[in-house]
């Protein structure tokens, strides 16, 4: 499996979950509720799982063992979500175009040791409402230049034959028709699709009702840096402003710890400490004001970018 993940950027494992585990995750998804989470460029398409440690323990343990086999190191859960498709409500359903993950790249700055553990919980027809991926091996053989740019990276959108860099800005024109080299694994309830963070992927279609859970994980020793927007662009600032509570809290953690960098484990543990404090009615002093100040800083950066572009 590790060879397949390194070679193509994804692994499809059939019947990873048993019926009881599927039922437990569906119950968990109902408790989280649909439509209350972070959006994608302002659209409420994903229900955020703010505390992934609440995911049923038996599923966490199963995924942990798999991750050890794939990476040989400890992986920790991070920002996750519930992705739903309802053909009767397409405007509020997942329908992402080809892209590479944005939020995680802003969070950790790399995708070589970051995974999207995509579990299908409910779907009547395996032929539709899947995830379409662009295998690394086919990308490399079809367009080596694009492969060199994309593999290991993130925060990018693909429109026609243009890769739009939503991290530092700019774009790259490429020659390959990525639809022609794409692959769509046929996913049934209980199947797991392991996606490395840098794989190019999109929603296949919205033809069948589907509920899935996307559990994200990162190697515990990956280093996260405070100044994620040193290299920036308008879309990156807009993305971070659309989820300012999350990124403002992130900046607060670095400020409170008096450091410019920390491991992914330290960052996630600090986030958990804040959640527990808030639940106990002891919101950290200065958190709310820091988030507001952080938001104002992003808006000022956004304003300066817009002025310089005129």
Brief overview:
With 310 residues, this protein is an alpha+beta fold.
Overview of this structure, please?
The chain is α+β, with helices and mostly antiparallel strands and 310 residues long. The protein is 39% helix and 23% strand. It contains eleven helices and 14 strands. The chain has helices at residues 2-8, 19-32, 57-71, 103-108, 136-142, 144-150, 178-181, 234-242, 244-257, 264-279, 287-309, and strands at residues 10-13, 46-49, 75-85, 99-100, 114-123, 131-134, 156-159, 162-165, 171-173, 192-196, 200-203, 210-219, 223-225, 261-263. The strands form four sheets. The chain has a six-stranded antiparallel sheet. A four-stranded antiparallel sheet has the order 4-7-8-9, with no helix packed on it. A hairpin with a 2-residue loop joins strand 7 (156-159) and strand 8. The longest helix is centred in the C-terminal third of the chain and has 23 residues, at 287-309.
Shape: globular
Radius of gyration: 19 Å
Cα separation of the termini: 50 Å
- Summed up, the helix count is 11
- Order of strands, main sheet, comes to 1-10-5-12-3-2
Strand fraction band?
15-25%
Helix and strand element order:
HEHEHEEHEEHHEEEHEEEEHHEHH
Low-confidence stretches: 35-44
* Helical content class: 25-40%
Structural class: alpha+beta
Name the quaternary structure: single chain
Largest sheet: 6 strands, antiparallel
Mean pLDDT: 91
Number of strands: 14
